[in-house]
C-alpha cells in the first residue's frame, strides 16, 4: 500500500462519515465546540464526545468512542496529547478508519499508535475549521 499525502487523506476524511468529535465542548469559544459546529454547518452526521456533558449543541453527547451508537468512520480529536494517544488506541480497537488530531492535540506517539493500529492519521497541524471553511454564525 502506498502512503497517501495529507491532502488526499483530508479529502477522504471529509468525503463521508459518520464522524465523532472527541473533546467536544459546551463552551462556544473553545475549538472543541467550533469543530463540532463545523460539521453541523455542512449537515454532516456527527457525534460529540465529552465525559462531562450529556448534550452539546442540541446533540446527545457520549462519554467515549465505545459508547457511540455506531463506529465513526472519522474522528476529530481536540484533547491534550496524552489523552489523544488513548483516543487513537481506542479508535484503532473499534475500527475507525481515519483520525484527525487538531493542532495541539497531536504527538509523535499518537501518530505511532495510529500507524500500529492501522488507522490513517492527520497530525501535521492541518485544521478542520480551515478545510471546511468554517464561519462563526
Provide a descriptive summary of the structure in words.
This protein has 137 residues and is α/β, with parallel strands linked by helices. The protein has helices at residues 6-15, 31-41, 81-94, 108-116, 128-131, and strands at 19-22, 46-49, 55-56, 59-60, 74-77, 98-101, 120-122. The strands form two sheets. A five-stranded parallel β-sheet has the order 2-1-5-6-7, with helices on both faces. Strands 3-4 form a two-stranded antiparallel sheet. Strand 5, helix 3 (81-94) and strand 6 (98-101) form a beta-alpha-beta unit. Helix 3 (81-94) packs parallel to helix 4. The radius of gyration is 13 Å and the shape is globular. 39% of the residues are buried.
Chain-wise SSE layout:
Elements: H1 6-15, E1 19-22, H2 31-41, E2 46-49, E3 55-56, E4 59-60, E5 74-77, H3 81-94, E6 98-101, H4 108-116, E7 120-122, H5 128-131
Parallel strand pairs: 1-2, 1-5, 5-6, 6-7
Antiparallel strand pairs: 3-4
